[in-house]
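#onboarding

Welcome to the new folks! Below is a worked example of what a typical request in this channel looks like: someone posts a single protein sequence, and someone else replies with the predicted structure as tokens. Don't worry about understanding the tokens yet, we'll cover that in week two.

Example request:
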Amino acid sequence: MPNHVDAYINLGDIYSSRKEFASALASYNTALAIDPTNSYASRKAKQAEAKLLDK
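Example response:
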């Protein structure tokens, strides 16, 4: 299911660019549920979580 992983990552990137970090985090976490070894999704999820904690 690599295409689904990429779709969730792309969605997370769009949400992040719109500063919708809760939605971005959910998308990255969905990607990680499909592929737990995806380092990009993991890194971006941590960044989105940090942005949420900064508020």
